[in-house]
Amino acid sequence: MAHSSNQKPIKIESNSFGSQFSKVIDKLGIIVVLIFLLILMSLLTDKFLTPMNLTNVVRQISFIALIAIGVTSIIITTGIDLSSGSVVGLTSVVVASAAHPGQFPLVVTILIGLSVGLVVGLINGFLVAYAKLPPFIATMGTWTTVRGLALLYSNGRPVNDLKDEFTYLGGGRFLGVPVPILVLIAVAILTHLLLTSTRLGRHVFAIGGNEQAAIIGGINVKIVKLAVYVYASTLAALSGLLLTGRIASGQSALGVGYELDAIAAAVIGGTSLTGGIGSIVGTISGALVIGVINNGMDLLNVNMYWQQIAKGMIIVIAVFLDSQKKKAK
Amino acid sequence: MRWFLPSPHNWGIGMNNDYILEMEHICKRFPGVIALDDVQLKVRRGTVHALMGENGAGKSTLMKILIGINKMDGGNIIFDGKEVQIQNTHFALKHGISMIFQELSPIPHMTVMENIYVGREQLSANRIFISKKQMAEDTANILKKLEMESINPKEKMVNLSVAKTQMVEICKAISYNSKLIIMDEPTSAISEKECDHLFKIVKQLTREGVSFIFITHKMDEVFKLADDITVFRDGKFICTELASNMNHHMLVEKMVGREITQMFPKEEVDIGDVYISFKNLTKKGLFENVSFDVRRGEIIGLAGLMGAGRTELMETIFGYRKLDSGEIYINNKKVTIKGPKDAIANKMALITEDRKLTGLYLPLSVKDNMIMPSLRRFSRGLLLQHRSIDKICNENRVNFDIKTPSINQIVNNLSGGNQQKVLIARWLMTDPEIIILDEPTRGIDVGSKSEIHKLISNLAKQGKCIIMISSEMPEVIGMSDQIVVMYKGTVKAIINRKNVTQELILENASGLET
Ligand SMILES: Nc1ncnc2c1ncn2[C@@H]1O[C@H](COP(=O)(O)OP(=O)(O)OP(=O)(O)O)[C@@H](O)[C@H]1O
Ligand SMILES: [Mg+2]
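Structure tokens for the assembled complex are given below, as produced in the milestone run.
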């Protein structure tokens, strides 16, 4: 037989430094893009890299990022949430009408605002997990219904005259940092831990990775899905509440289109629409990428229409690159 | 009056106590199919009970009822002396029944340990966070106990080979410390060595009082492992016997209801000229310098252990991956295959190993699955010729004896073996000259197996070139004209039908010097 004794066997599963390194790049790909953008923008305009402008960018994205964190968890279970923008609108008018001076203590006002999200989330979760509607259809239903409710509730008119305590939540600063940014940081850390280090979080991934296997493992898939939808809508309500404080007015049209921006942030950040993959670090980076591009183009006086076009192209390119990465394997 | 109340300790002493499980009068129907018709299954404690039957006999369905995935229409189940209503898998697992599934169910982007502990992740002292350290430790311990240290608990499932994925599934089932473990074709994806390993573990566990239900289509395994054998045919109970009272021949007859004369009906065929030849095919990390020829009418058996690179080699030849270097000649002409489309244009067909992953369109019908690559042949202008499609699909259903109520049935609802037949039918419809079959009879019952072998033999007789990957020694030896043995991505030996022995293949496959 023709073979030599010193034949080197081929290593089938490699664990070399190279593959470790590419794993890290894989995970942080979006961060590399972000750093590249930061450098590019600061070269193009000297107005970009100032503490004030950077704070501005982060505050601008914080409202979308909060929603994106919720929708990331949903997408990981192979779901989707189209209703979050409408939740922002309904929360805005409801919370504003409970935020007039001398009406309720601040805590109660906040709870009323969040409960809007809680209720919508319960409905979404019920429709998806128990009534077994496809998530796209279920949340498209609540998307228009909830927006309708917001208009009905406010008669389409803004709700003004809000107490200072409340507007502080959206417009104020704590230790020099805008409050929405602090809220975002807290929620991001909390959700990151929830997803990576608790049972509930791991069950979210398991369901998205292989629902059948999750059921066989004894996971209560319905409750986990319900929880995820409730969590996401509550975060959307939180976002609406902060935004209402920021503009010091309840507006039924607030948050139109936010659901798509949030989904875009998640997807740019590497969340897989087929489920089972996604991270909060990625989603926040995704939101920052969108924010930096918008801000940069503002500073460079690019007109609004071009900004729209650019955003659309970035989403497509991001997902394209991601799919190339998968194909290379 | 005390003596009227049976105390739980006396409960069930006598005959019943011998049984860990008694299922009686179980019925289950699906739309158009009676999957189980008043069947029974009684498993003695501490034994391995083989459940045998042809494809579609209802074995998996009964097991899914036992584990709580399917609901039975009627019947009763006594487990461990108590009548139970199994509501869901959670209930079954909690009461000591676990299962290794016929179709693997890994969660691809999670780690080995997360897969093993899915649904029962251990918490750390604060009761909030998962203790990854604990899980890694426990997983390492289980893997060590089962002598599978080569698997890293923190590796993601996607990165594991099919065999290792299967071993993880086995670990998972055992890790529940169950009283009864169901194994639905656990050995269909693992090599002989791993198989022996598994059997050793099973034997050891039965000594500790664990019982097993074992489903397989490999006859030798049954007699190696089983204490009792139950046979089903077409959803009906046929018999339960001690394995020692049965032999191979009787068992096959009970399963099939008729006699099978020849397992490997390999016909002597005049072998023609070299039709396709591979020269120094290399793909870094997978295989290196692979060369061999296939002549018209020749059946090449591709033997080797799991991970030898056989599947990867065939997938690359078919254009699913890109070659790093090497040449392919068909009819003495060099061809470049950039993708499966080129391969099909060169009259190749690849029947893949993993039905669900790379084979079937699961939510589509049997008909759609069969016709997909041959659509062009069945269209006139832009429109499909539905009548002729239906006709040919129905012919195929009869020819291949595919058990399905109609060709419009969703392929996901077919039993494993019948799904395989759909795939074979699909590729033969494209009228290929070079047919690559990757584990063509994995999960296929004896009856259909010999039919598929007959089919392969027939194709060879028509002058087609056949390359067949198989991990089943008797199949390789029985069917092949030449046997190419691979070891870690290289061709270790090419053995002629005349000289082949099981030992010779094994020695080369495990890289031993001869
Ligand atoms: N969900 C379902 N819907 C419709 N029919 C089904 C479904 N599941 C199983 N069947 C049918 O029930 C019968 C029994 O199938 P089952 O999977 O139990 O067979 P099996 O004995 O495990 O066969 P194999 O050896 O091929 O795995 C088959 O005819 C199959 O087509
Ligand atoms: Mg089966």
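Residues 55 and 178 of chain A are 8 Å apart (CA to CA). Chain A touches chain B through 31 residues (CB under 8 Å). Further analysis is deferred to the final report.
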